[in-house]
Amino acid sequence: MKKILCLAAVLLMSFSTINEEPVERIGVKGPIEFNKTKFSLAWTAHPKDNYYAQEYLPKNETVEHFNQLLTIHVFVTDLSVDDAISQKVSELNKRKETDKVSNFSVIKSPDGKESILDCLLSSGKNDKIDIVEFIVYRYKQIELKNNKKALLIYAYSKRSYDDKITSFLKNLKNDRTDLLNVMTSQELPKITIKE
């Protein structure tokens, strides 16, 4: 009897370590195409009543170690794009105090309804940088069901690690322009929050 209970416990443990399917909550199951790469839903979170996040990865990449990542953030709020950008700029200015690589720029759409913020960030230990990440955020205020307002932040990240960082930074000048153009022309997903 002890052996059966023990085996049952081991079986239960092994099932619990298998990654569960992410819970899709915003009506964007994917895959999503960005810059000729397909991204599939990999991770989701709903940490606050008014906040949803979903991450999408190319095939064979993981949330823990990726080269490219798409993220959709949805905040159910009437916060304006300008106010959200202002908060992000403040956060990035503070980061510059500890991140020597950190840099950013903001571009506002001609109609003033959207903004794109792109930034370069790094992390490491003992004055050695081991990760560099370029991120492009696109901010837009949207309307949900029942005339609720929300802030949609659509983000693309491109990362490099360790000895590949130097070539990544050299190529970034051209890559940045191309990725900003792709982000500007990308059709934003239609958001439908599942209550």
Describe it for me?
The protein has an 8-stranded antiparallel beta sheet with strand order 1-2-3-4-8-7-6-5, with helices on both faces. The protein has helices at residues 2-17, 81-95, 165-185, and strands at residues 32-34, 37-48, 51-57, 68-75, 103-108, 114-125, 128-143, 149-161. It starts with a helix and ends in a 10-residue tail after the last helix. The chain has 195 residues and is an alpha+beta fold.
- The helix-strand sequence is HEEEEHEEEEH
What's the arrangement of strands in the largest beta sheet?
1-2-3-4-8-7-6-5
Output the number of helix runs: 3
| Helical/strand content category | alpha+beta
Reported for the largest beta sheet, the result is:
8 strands, antiparallel
CA radius of gyration is 20 Å
Task: Characterize the overall form.
Answer: globular
Kindly state the number of beta strands: 8
Distance between the ends: 45 Å
**Low-confidence blocks of residues:** 1-18
Strand content: 35-45%
Topology:
Blueprint: H1 2-17, E1 32-34, E2 37-48, E3 51-57, E4 68-75, H2 81-95, E5 103-108, E6 114-125, E7 128-143, E8 149-161, H3 165-185
